[in-house]
Amino acid sequence: MTGFATVGDAWACTNPSAGRGLSVGLLHAQVLRDLVRRNLFEPAALAGDYDAKTELEVAPFYRSQIVADRARIAEMNALEDGTVVPPSNPIMAKLLVAATYDAEVFRGVLEIAMCVALPQDVIARPYIAAKIAEWDGCSLPPDCSVIDRDRMRSLLSG
Ligand SMILES: Cc1cc2nc3c(=O)[nH]c(=O)nc-3n(C[C@H](O)[C@H](O)[C@H](O)COP(=O)(O)OP(=O)(O)OC[C@H]3O[C@@H](n4cnc5c(N)ncnc54)[C@H](O)[C@@H]3O)c2cc1C
Prior knowledge:
Blueprint: H1 21-39, H2 43-81, H3 90-99, H4 103-113, H5 119-124, H6 126-133, H7 149-157
Helix pairs in contact: 1-2, 3-4, 3-6
């Protein structure tokens, strides 16, 4: 469509609890600014390039949040139903544990959270990949952020 460009939440939004909407919106606005600079008087090229660059540079952050949200919803449903909580993505689980022991890995996790880098790019960095590999075959410490209904009840009643 020419003469119209959706930016930020008007293009896509996910889940405010992730705190990524401003980062995604600012990134998207920069993409549009750069293309308007080049193609202001070429409406078809502007629309096509904006769509392509949005898919390439902005959509991956949206998609990675969707994956995380679906996993979290499955986890919440399992906790509510009293069924087995689906296992989390093993690489991401190891990344998060490694981040609690290593400042460089922690910075990588922050880059993912702030939409400065995508998960696949962070975990592919040799240092971070090595830190993740250190947890191969080890049982990971329990995820303290998961509170089942019984624990929640006891916390509330206490
Ligand atoms: C509860 C909640 C908590 C959040 N927490 C965070 C957070 O911690 N960190 C983070 O990064 N993001 C957070 N977000 C997401 C973030 O607020 C949004 O991603 C961001 O504001 C999107 O910016 P935007 O400019 O695209 O849209 P908006 O901020 O929605 O701006 C759109 C503007 O357009 C105006 N408008 C609408 N229709 C018209 C019209 N017809 N004519 C003129 N003006 C119009 C609206 O009034 C609004 O001011 C949160 C969102 C919610 C709902």
